[in-house]
């Protein structure tokens, strides 16, 4: 093909057709040379990494798999002095204690209820997270209303037997909520009817929920002090995740609000909760919450750390979401406002969908942190997975040198599987959203 | 398409002005950006606003749909005075379309969704009808085939035409243009201007901040020249270009017309 480089005068006569790119694929040896040994420094690094892998991976595999003890009924299998093997992990211990790790001390004859809870949770998670699932709007109703109510009845046994006084109190509360909505509508000068419908709907949902919880389904009562293991860990994590995202969004919007009282309240909450270690929040929730409540009112001892972790995660979530809100260009707000969208519409349709997408990595980071932080509820006497392992570790029937390490290895594996899946899922969502709308 | 979606300004016989600005002042902190703005825009009138950068021309038209708040004076849009009442501001914004320099399309929505969003949520129009209206206006700005793409996949000129269609879907009575061609590649300016000329020919009330003097000559009923937050000169385009009165106007025109 001729070029025009040397000529002062050039007019293109024929169009250059688009060609496929030249084949850049090369053999594995070329790839290795280019990526691992491309210079002195790189070669050195590669060798160091290989050496580190060599001294860490084989012993780990040897301990966890090759030399591990897989069967056995008590400590004899994992002790050298009784003819067992001490060189590897004692998986027989995990197998023997597995039910305790999953259910804690939950009444043995009622454990099928926990299994149903796990199944319902799995259905809800898949329904919401699988982006192509049918009727995801129903999935949201299921996950945020049906599932919690059913789980509560299943796990505790329901049959709360509310008194007549309680129901009268609820009626007064309902009337207050509805009038509050009407008042807000009048204050914001929007039409009253949708506000009334919204307020009435909220009261109705709460009422139906309470009535369901009040009903006697013939399930035996299982006090929360018996719950434990994976059940508690998943419960605390799920409640924390489900509460912290919406509450964090509200806090983030509050912090950017123009109304000084709303802004101040959000800032004080966020900064206070963030400025205090989770352990302190948990201990405060455990010991101080009852002090603030009227004398005859008690809060369940599992509910206290649940509230504590949820509020703690919300404060972090609020800051993550605020980062996303601040990254939104001003033009997006102006475009939405110029079309006549009001504030809730602008936020829910235009700003939040984009802002939240920007901060997916941060949101999932907070979720992962929260998931692992659930192990701290042990500090207030809740038997989560780590605490059940701790308790089993000192069981004399399984007294053997490798028991502790095996227990913690099991916990590490459990946490890793969940956290890694969250991380992978969020990467998938990011990729999918990025493919849909190239900027 | 039925006739009901054609902007009603053209057939509205009411004598009341579309926009009235009376002694409007605005400050950004200590900085006095708008000073003594008095302007009456008749229905169906097309006004081009020009002036050096920082002269307050964008701020002025952004006051008309309350993207900026004025601190003194009165602004009355289509008979509704702009006060602090949020509900009335939303009412005004519903009737006043705005096209921005940087398009401000919503990147997470398709072109069609960009156009149907406000009719569905603000006007409570059924989705199907909103989509018909959107396709009507997308056809008018000559990009119906892009309806299911995302804004990021379109050229600048196409995006700006989508932005115009998005505003038209609300059947506005007044259209504000804030330097609609300034961020475009030279090759794309004409397609956007053609769309705007078409709109002007249909009798839309338009306020347009632009430096496209050819456009001003072709469609404007009045040209306004602003400097230091004030209206310095206002005249018909013929007189404005042929016979500028104010010293500052003459200097400005000599800078931009070669």
From TrEMBL, chain A:
ABC transmembrane type-1 domain segment(s): 230-418
Record keywords: Cell membrane, Membrane, Transmembrane, Transmembrane helix, Transport
Entry's transmembrane regions: 36-57, 112-131, 138-155, 167-188, 195-213, 225-253, 265-285, 305-325, 346-368, 398-422
InterPro entries membership: AA_ABC_transptr_permease_3TM, ArtM/GltK/GlnP/TcyL/YhdX-like, MetI-like, MetI-like_sf
SUPFAM superfamilies xrefs: MetI-like
Membrane topology recorded in Swiss-Prot or TrEMBL: Multi-pass membrane protein
Signal sequence interval, chain numbering: none
Pfam family, one: BPD_transp_1
Compartments it resides in: Cell inner membrane; Cell membrane
Similarity annotation: Belongs to the binding-protein-dependent transport system permease family. HisMQ subfamily.
PANTHER family: INNER MEMBRANE AMINO-ACID ABC TRANSPORTER PERMEASE PROTEIN YHDY (PTHR30614:SF41), MEMBRANE COMPONENT OF AMINO ACID ABC TRANSPORTER (PTHR30614)
Name this protein carries in UniProt: Amino acid ABC transporter permease
Organism from which the protein derives: Microvirga terrestris
From TrEMBL, chain B:
Highest taxon in the source lineage: Bacteria
Xref: InterPro entries: AAA+_ATPase, ABC_ATPase_HisP-typ, ABC_transporter-like_ATP-bd, ABC_transporter-like_CS, MetN_ABC_transporter-like, P-loop_NTPase
Pfam families the record matches: ABC_tran
Keywords linked to the UniProt accession: ATP-binding, Nucleotide-binding, Transport
One GO MF term attached to the UniProt entry: ATP binding
UniProt domain ABC transporter: residue ranges: 19-253
Family label: Belongs to the ABC transporter superfamily.
Protein name in the entry: Amino acid ABC transporter ATP-binding protein
């Amino acid at each position: 093909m001729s070029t025009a480089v040397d000529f002062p005068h050039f007019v293109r006569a024929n169009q250059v057709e688009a060609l496929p790119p030249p084949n850049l694929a090369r053999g594995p040896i070329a790839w290795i040379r280019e990526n691992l040994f491309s210079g002195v420094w790189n070669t050195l690094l590669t060798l160091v990494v290989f050496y580190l892998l060599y001294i860490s991976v084989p012993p780990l595999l040897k301990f966890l798999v090759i030399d591990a003890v897989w069967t056995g009924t008590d400590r004899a299998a994992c002790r050298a002095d009784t003819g067992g093997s001490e060189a590897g992990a004692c998986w027989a211990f995990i197998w023997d204690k597995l039910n305790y790790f999953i259910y804690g001390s939950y009444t043995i004859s009622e454990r099928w209820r926990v299994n149903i809870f796990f199944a319902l949770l799995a259905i809800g998670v898949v329904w919401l997270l699988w982006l192509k699932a049918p009727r995801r709007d129903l999935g949201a109703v299921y996950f945020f209303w049906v599932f919690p109510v059913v789980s509560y009845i299943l796990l505790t046994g329901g049959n709360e037997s509310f008194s007549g006084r309680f129901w009268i109190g609820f009626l007064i509360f309902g009337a207050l909520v509805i009038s509050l909505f009407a008042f807000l509508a009048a204050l914001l000068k929007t039409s009253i009817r949708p506000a009334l419908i919204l307020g009435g709907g909220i009261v109705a949902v709460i009422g139906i929920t309470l009535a369901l919880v009040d009903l006697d389904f013939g399930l035996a009562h299982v006090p929360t002090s018996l719950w434990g293991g994976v059940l508690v860990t998943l419960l605390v994590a799920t409640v924390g995740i489900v509460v912290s995202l919406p509450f964090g969004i509200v806090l983030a919007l509050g912090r950017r609000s123009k109304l000084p009282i709303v802004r101040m309240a959000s800032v004080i909450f966020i900064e206070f909760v963030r400025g205090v270690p989770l352990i302190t929040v948990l201990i405060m929730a455990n010991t101080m919450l009852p002090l603030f409540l009227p004398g005859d009112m008690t809060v369940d001892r599992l509910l206290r750390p649940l509230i504590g972790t949820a509020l703690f995660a919300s404060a972090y979530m609020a800051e993550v979401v605020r980062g996303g809100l601040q990254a939104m260009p001003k033009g997006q707000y102006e475009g939405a406002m110029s079309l006549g969208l009001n504030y809730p519409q602008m936020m829910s349709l235009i700003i939040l969908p984009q802002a939240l997408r920007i901060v997916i990595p941060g949101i999932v980071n907070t979720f992962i942190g929260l998931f692992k932080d659930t192990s701290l509820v042990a500090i207030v006497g809740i038997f989560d997975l780590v605490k059940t392992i701790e308790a089993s570790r000192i069981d004399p029937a399984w007294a053997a040198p490798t028991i502790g390490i095996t227990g913690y290895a099991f916990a590490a594996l459990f946490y890793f599987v969940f956290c890694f899946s969250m991380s992978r899922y969020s990467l998938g969502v990011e990729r999918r959203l990025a493919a849909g709308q190239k900027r | 398409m039925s006739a009901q979606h054609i902007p009603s300004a053209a057939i509205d016989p009411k004598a009341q002005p579309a926009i009235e600005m009376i002694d409007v002042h605005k400050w950004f902190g200590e900085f006095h950006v708008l000073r003594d703005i008095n302007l009456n825009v008749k229905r169906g009138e097309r006004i081009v606003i020009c002036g050096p950068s920082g002269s307050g021309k964008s701020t002025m038209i952004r006051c008309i749909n309350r993207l900026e708040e004025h601190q003194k004076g009165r602004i009355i849009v289509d008979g509704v005075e702009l006060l602090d009442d949020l509900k009335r501001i939303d009412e005004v914004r519903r009737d006043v379309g705005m096209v921005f320099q940087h398009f401000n399309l919503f990147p997470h929505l398709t072109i069609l969704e960009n156009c149907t969003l406000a009719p569905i949520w603000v006007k409570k129009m059924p989705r199907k009808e909103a989509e018909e209206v959107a396709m009507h206006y997308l056809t008018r700005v000559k990009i119906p085939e892009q309806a299911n793409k995302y804004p990021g996949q379109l050229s600048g000129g196409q995006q700006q035409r989508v932005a115009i269609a998005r505003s038209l879907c609300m059947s506005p009575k007044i259209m504000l243009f804030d330097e609609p061609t300034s961020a475009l590649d030279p090759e794309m300016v004409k397609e956007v201007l053609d769309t705007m000329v078409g709109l002007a020919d249909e009798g839309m009330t338009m306020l347009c901040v632009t430096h496209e003097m050819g456009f001003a000559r072709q469609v404007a009923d009045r040209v306004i020249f602003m400097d230091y937050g004030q209206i310095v000169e206002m005249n018909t385009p013929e007189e404005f270009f042929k016979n500028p009165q104010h010293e500052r106007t003459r200097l400005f025109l000599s800078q931009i017309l070669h």
